[in-house]
TrEMBL record:
InterPro entries: Znf_MqsA-type (IPR022453). It comes from the Bacteria. This is YgiT-type zinc finger domain-containing protein.
Length: 80
C-alpha cells in the first residue's frame, strides 16, 4: 500500500494510522477500519486510491441493500 507522505492541505507529515470510517449508502451505514495517512498538523485524513475505491463499492452495496457480506454491529439512530 502506497501512501503519499505529505499532507495536501498544509504540507505536514502524514503518519500511517488505523482509522474508523463511517460509510453511508441509502439509509444504511457501515463502519470500516482502514489504514490511512493522518496529518498530525491539521488532522486531515488521506486515503489511498485502493481504499477510496473500496469505500465506493461499500457505499453502492449499502445503497442496494447488498449487506449479506457485512456483520451487524448495532442499530443506527437519527437524533431529531
Ligand atoms: Zn495537514
Amino acid at each position: 500500500m502506497k501512501l503519499i507522505s505529505r499532507c495536501p492541505i498544509c504540507g505536514g507529515q502524514l503518519m500511517k494510522e488505523d482509522v474508523e470510517k463511517l460509510l453511508r449508502g441509502g439509509s444504511n451505514v457501515a463502519s470500516i477500519e482502514v489504514r490511512a495517512g493522518v496529518c498530525h498538523k491539521c488532522g486531515e485524513i488521506v486515503y489511498d486510491a485502493v481504499t477510496v475505491r473500496k469505500f465506493q463499492e461499500i457505499r453502492e452495496k449499502l445503497e442496494q441493500n447488498e449487506v449479506a457480506d457485512f456483520s451487524l454491529l448495532g442499530k443506527a439512530y437519527v437524533v431529531n
